[in-house]
Design a protein that fits this description.
- There is one protein chain.
- Strands 1, 2, 3, 4 and 5 form a 5-stranded mixed beta sheet that branches.
- The N terminus and C terminus are likely disordered.
- This protein has 8 helices and 5 strands.
- It is elongated, with a radius of gyration of 23 Å.
- Strand 2 and strand 3 form a beta hairpin.
- The longest helix has 35 residues.
- By secondary structure, it is an alpha+beta fold.
């Protein structure tokens, strides 16, 4: 009897549909336009499928039905893609401006071909401004977290260090923020992808290993995981 009670008291994990609904609710809470984009992504392909079916079917009901089904499946796929992108953006909006936010993106939001570290390579203990590093086909990219007026010198110093170690590898910089010339947190991944390819995939690994072997470990906390971050409800109006 005791085992039955224990097993009944165990909370079952939510199903896939319930998880998707929870993600949608969270996304809509922080992105009021998300639901309309998702609806457009769902309905648009269905309407297109109906139109193409009517034009090409020659009045055949079975052919029209096939085009409608194809439009429905395409609409579901497009809606899921939009939900995923909007959910990622909403998750990053919860940690935007907090120390370690850039590290969280480098840990979980990088595209293939890029290597990032959630630990910064330079940090100001007083202001909590930091510089992070990512290595990819575009070379070495240094990313600042904090006001650009305070982090510019940190970026330049780290850029000189990398240039001394790897003189033949291009080094570029990105300032994360909302001001002029800065990249918003949720656009950091696409910004890295836009860098011009300059080294090969094997060289990416070699460059990253070379830099990691010379990096001094800093006694600072790890970045924030956007998938586990809790919204600061006190600031929501």
């Amino acid at each position: 009897m005791a085992r039955k009670k224990e097993s009944s008291s165990v909370t079952k994990e939510p199903g896939r549909i319930k998880q998707m609904w929870q993600v949608f609710q969270m996304t809509r809470r922080y992105d009021s336009k998300a639901q309309w984009w998702i609806l457009l992504g769902l309905v648009g392909p269905i309407i297109l499928g109906v139109g193409v079916g009517i034009l090409l079917s020659g009045g055949n009901g079975f052919t029209i039905a096939l085009w409608v089904i194809a439009g429905l499946l395409a609409g579901i796929l497009v809606a899921m893609i939009i939900l995923g992108r909007r959910a990622e953006r909403a998750a990053y909006s919860q940690i935007d401006g907090q120390p370690g936010a850039v590290g969280a993106v480098l840990k979980s939001g990088l595209r293939r071909g890029w290597i990032g570290n959630e630990m910064p390579v330079a940090v100001n203990a007083k202001t909590q401004d930091a510089v992070y590093r990512a290595v990819g086909r575009g070379g070495v990219v240094l990313i600042s977290e904090g006001p650009q007026t305070r982090t510019q010198r940190m970026l330049e110093e780290e850029k000189r260090k990398v240039a001394r170690i790897l003189p033949n590898v291009p080094v570029s910089t990105i300032a994360v923020g909302h001001g002029a010339g800065e990249v918003e947190l949720h656009r950091l991944g696409p910004a890295l992808k836009k860098t011009k390819k300059a080294i090969t995939k094997p060289e990416v690994v070699a460059v990253n290993n070379r830099l990691n072997s010379l990096q001094t470990q800093l006694p600072i906390p790890k970045g924030i995981d956007p998938l586990r971050a809790r919204p600061q409800r006190g600031r929501i109006r």
